[in-house]
Amino acid sequence: MNLIEEFNEYRAKMNEKVLDSDNKVIKRIFNLDTNAYAEGSLDIKTKEMLGLACSMVLRCDDCIKYHLGKCHEVGINKTEIFEVFSIATLIGGTIVIPHLRRATEYWEQLENQ
């Protein structure tokens, strides 16, 4: 199983378990997250690139993978992704570099699927 399949299957399985708890606060947080990335004054591509940059600065590999997948889905190209990577690394500093490496590997798999 490749990185993308493994991540997506695990994420879906665990999201289902989390939401099955029927906790109102958790459901509202998930809903807020979904609505925040919907089309609005900013287009979806821009929101996903913002989400990716913030996730890299915060060093959340799961979030990085999620936003890379969404960026790929909405048609962001390799040149655009590497501009996002450059901004995130500039803002986050050299501590972001290990996440940049894993993000690059994940992006390559997205491009090759």
TrEMBL record:
SUPFAM superfamilies: AhpD-like (SSF69118). InterPro entries: AhpD-like, AhpD_core, CMD-like. Residues 27-105 form the Carboxymuconolactone decarboxylase-like domain. Gene3D superfamilies: AhpD-like (1.20.1290.10). This is Carboxymuconolactone decarboxylase family protein. It comes from Algoriphagus pacificus.
